[in-house]
Structure to design on (598 residues):
C-alpha cells in the first residue's frame, strides 16, 4: 500500500492560475480568503488527510461497518478520527460565520474535500451528507430550525443524512410513498427508506435526518413531496437531547465498495403512530428545496471521482517506479528496469495524469462559478455565473466519475496481476469509486439534465457562451508564437466545432425528437467534458509557459504541465469527434431495436 500525499502545489496552481482565487477573495464576504489563510487551510487539511484518514482507508475496507443490536459499529479508528475531524473544525469550512462556519469559498472547500475523499472516501461521506443537510437548512429552514440545528451540524457535534430513496423510488423520486401527517405544529412520519448513507453511526450523539415524504392528498409525482427534519433525538430548547424518536436502522447493505460507510435501511414510525418530523419551508416544495442544494452535492460527488483517481495515480506511479520487469527498448546494456520505462506503461500513467488534472480543473472551475453565483457584485453577474455553474454541474458529476473509474481501472492494469489481488489495495479504489456514477442522480440522469434542462431552458445560450469563451482563449494561445500552445489551440478547434454543431442539433430537436435527443445525451456529455478538460489544460499550459518565461521556480513542474496538456490533446481529445458522431448519427441506431428485441 502506498501512502497518500496531498497534491498541494497542483491545487494551488489551479486555484491561482485558472480558477482566479485572487478575484474570488475580493468578492464581498470572502475577504478572509487571503492567500496565506488558504495556504494554511490546505496545508493543514493535507496533513490530516494523509496522517489520520488515509491510514484508515484499508482498515475500513477490510472491517466494514456492522450492525450490532440495532447500533452501527464503524471500523476501528473511524470514531476517533471523526472526533478529531470535528474538533479540528473541518466540518465548518464553507458555511456561514453566523452559525459557526468559516465562510470560505467553495473553491477552497472543494479542494479540501478532495483531500478527504482521496484519503478515505468512505469516511468522507459522513461530512458530505451533513453538508447537504446544512445547506438545505441554511437556505430553507425557519429561524428557529436554523438556531436549533445549524450550530450543532456545522460544528460536527451532530451529523446529517438525506433520505430520498425507497425501493420503488430511485431515479424517479416522485414515486416515493413515505407519509407525513400533520399533528399540531409537527408531523408524523411513517415509511421505509433504503440506501441511506450514515443513516446510523457511532460518530455523534444525534443524527438529523432530512426526509422526503408525502402529505395526505398531495398530488402524485415530485410536486407532492415535502421535506422534513426528523432527528434521532428531539432537541430540547436548551440544545440538550430530548426524547428518542421512532426511527431505526433495520439493516446495513453489503456492498462492492465504500464498506466503512454504513448504507442503511431506515424505518420511520414503526411504533408510536409515526416518527416526529418538522416541516422545512412549505408543504409540497420539498423537491424544489432539494434542487437548490443539489449543485454542491453533485459537484462533491464529481470530486469523489477526481479524488479516488488522484490516489490511484499516486499508487500507480509509485508501483511503476519500483516494479522491475523486462528490458526497456532503448537500452543497450541488456539490463532490466522498472516498468515506468516502457512506453505503454508511460502512456497509461500519462492518461491517468492528464485525466486527473482535467477533472481537478473542471471541478475547481465549477466551484468558482458557484462562488461568483453566490457573491458576485451584481445580480446580472450572479445570474451569469449561476448559469455557467449549472451547465458545468452534470459534467463535473458524470464526466469526472466515469473518468474516475477509468483511472482506477488503469491503476489495476499497471499493477498487472497484483492489481487484481486485494492486498495491493488497487482493487479497493476501483470498488470504492464504482458507486459515484450511480448515486446523487445516475450519470444517465445527469446527461438528461444537461440536454433536457441545461440546453433546453435557454436554447443552448449558456453552452454557446462557454464555446465562445473557449474559442477566444484558443485564439490567444495560437497568436503568441509558441509552438506547443499553437498545437493545443489547433487540436481544440475541431472539438469546439463538434460541440457547437451537436449543441445546435440537439436544441433543434428538443421539441420534436426527444427519444433521439436522449439517446445522444451521454455521448454529448462526454464530448462536452472532454472538450472542457482539454480547454482547461491548455489554459494551464499557457500559465505554465508564462511562469517559465518569468523564471518560475519549479521548472520541471511547469514543463510537465505543458507536456500533460499536449498528451491530453493528442490522446484523449481526438475521441471527441467520435462522440459527436454518436450524438447525431448514432441516435437512430440506438433506437433501431425495440425494447423487446435487445
Ligand atoms: C452506496 C449507496 C449510497 C446511497 N446513499 C443514498 C443516500 O444517502 N440517500 C438516498 O436517498 N439515496 C441514496 N442512495 C440511492 C441512490 O441515490 C440511488 O441508487 C440512485 O438514485 C439510483 O436509483 P436506483 O438505484 O433505484 O436505480 P434506478 O432508478 O432503478 O436506475 C436503474 C438504471 O436505469 C436508469 N434510468 C432510470 N430512470 C431513467 C430515465 N428516466 N431515463 C434514463 N435512464 C433512467 C438509471 O440511469 C440506471 O442506469 C445510495 C445508493 C447507494 C448504492
Amino acid at each position: 500500500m502506498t501512502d497518500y500525499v496531498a497534491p498541494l502545489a497542483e491545487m494551488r496552481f489551479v486555484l491561482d492560475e485558472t480558477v482566479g482565487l485572487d478575484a474570488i477573495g475580493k468578492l464581498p464576504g470572502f475577504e478572509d480568503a487571503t492567500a496565506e489563510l488558504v495556504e494554511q487551510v490546505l496545508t493543514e487539511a493535507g496533513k490530516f488527510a494523509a496522517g489520520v484518514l488515509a491510514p484508515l482507508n484499508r482498515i475500513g475496507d477490510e472491517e466494514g461497518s456492522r450492525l450490532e443490536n440495532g447500533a452501527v459499529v464503524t471500523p476501528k479508528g473511524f470514531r476517533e478520527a471523526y472526533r478529531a475531524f470535528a474538533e479540528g473544525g473541518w466540518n465548518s469550512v464553507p458555511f456561514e460565520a453566523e452559525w459557526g462556519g468559516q465562510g470560505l469559498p467553495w473553491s477552497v472547500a472543494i479542494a479540501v474535500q478532495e483531500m478527504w475523499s482521496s484519503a478515505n472516501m468512505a469516511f468522507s461521506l459522513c461530512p458530505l451528507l451533513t453538508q447537504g443537510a446544512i445547506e438545505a437548512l441554511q437556505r430553507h429552514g425557519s429561524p428557529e430550525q436554523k438556531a436549533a440545528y445549524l450550530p450543532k451540524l456545522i460544528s460536527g457535534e451532530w451529523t446529517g443524512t438525506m433520505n430520498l430513496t425507497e425501493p420503488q423510488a430511485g431515479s424517479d423520486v416522485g414515486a416515493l410513498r413515505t407519509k407525513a401527517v400533520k399533528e399540531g405544529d409537527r408531523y408524523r412520519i411513517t415509511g421505509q427508506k433504503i440506501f441511506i448513507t450514515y443513516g446510523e453511526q457511532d460518530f455523534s450523539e444525534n443524527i438529523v435526518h432530512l426526509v422526503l415524504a408525502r402529505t395526505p392528498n398531495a398530488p402524485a409525482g415530485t410536486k407532492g413531496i415535502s421535506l422534513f427534519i426528523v432527528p434521532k433525538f428531539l432537541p430540547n430548547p436548551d440544545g440538550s437531547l430530548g426524547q428518542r424518536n421512532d426511527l431505526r436502522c433495520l439493516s446495513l447493505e453489503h456492498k462492492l465498495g465504500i464498506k466503512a460507510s454504513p448504507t442503511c435501511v431506515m424505518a420511520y414510525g414503526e411504533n408510536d403512530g409515526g416518527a416526529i418530523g418538522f416541516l422545512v419551508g412549505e408543504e409540497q416544495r420539498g423537491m424544489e428545496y432539494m434542487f437548490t442544494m443539489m449543485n454542491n452535492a453533485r459537484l462533491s460527488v464529481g470530486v469523489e471521482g477526481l479524488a479516488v483517481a488522484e490516489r490511484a495515480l499516486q499508487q500507480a506511479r509509485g508501483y511503476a517506479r519500483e516494479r522491475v520487469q523486462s528490458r526497456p527498448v532503448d537500452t543497450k546494456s541488456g539490463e532490466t528496469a522498472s516498468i515506468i520505462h516502457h512506453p505503454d506503461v508511460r502512456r497509461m500513467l500519462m492518461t491517468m495524469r492528464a485525466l486527473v488534472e482535467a477533472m481537478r480543473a473542471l471541478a475547481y472551475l465549477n466551484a468558482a462559478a458557484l462562488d461568483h453565483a453566490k457573491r458576485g457584485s451584481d445580480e446580472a453577474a450572479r445570474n451569469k455565473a449561476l448559469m455557467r455553474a449549472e451547465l458545468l454541474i452534470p459534467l463535473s458529476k458524470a464526466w469526472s466519475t466515469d473518468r474516475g473509474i477509468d483511472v482506477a481501472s488503469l491503476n489495476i492494469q499497471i499493477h498487472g496481476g497484483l492489481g487484481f489481488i486485494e492486498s495491493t489495495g488497487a482493487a479497493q479504489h476501483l470498488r470504492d469509486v464504482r458507486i459515484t456514477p450511480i448515486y446523487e442522480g445516475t450519470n444517465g440522469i445527469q446527461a438528461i439534465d444537461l440536454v433536457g434542462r441545461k440546453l433546453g431552458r435557454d436554447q443552448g445560450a449558456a453552452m454557446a457562451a462557454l464555446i465562445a469563451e473557449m474559442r477566444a482563449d484558443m485564439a490567444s494561445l495560437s497568436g503568441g508564437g509558441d509552438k506547443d500552445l499553437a498545437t493545443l489551440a489547433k487540436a481544440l478547434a475541431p472539438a469546439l466545432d463538434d460541440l457547437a454543431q451537436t449543441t445546435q442539433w440537439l436544441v433543434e430537436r428538443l421539441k420534436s425528437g426527444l427519444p433521439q435527443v436522449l439517446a445522444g445525451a451521454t455521448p454529448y456529455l462526454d464530448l462536452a467534458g472532454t472538450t472542457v478538460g482539454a480547454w482547461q489544460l491548455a489554459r494551464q499550459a499557457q500559465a505554465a509557459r508564462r511562469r517559465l518565461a518569468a523564471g518560475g521556480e519549479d521548472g520541471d513542474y511547469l514543463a510537465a504541465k505543458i507536456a500533460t496538456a499536449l498528451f491530453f490533446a493528442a490522446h484523449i481529445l481526438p475521441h471527441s469527434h467520435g462522440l459527436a458522431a454518436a450524438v447525431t448519427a448514432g441516435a437512430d441506431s440506438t433506437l433501431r431495436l425495440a425494447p423487446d428485441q435487445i
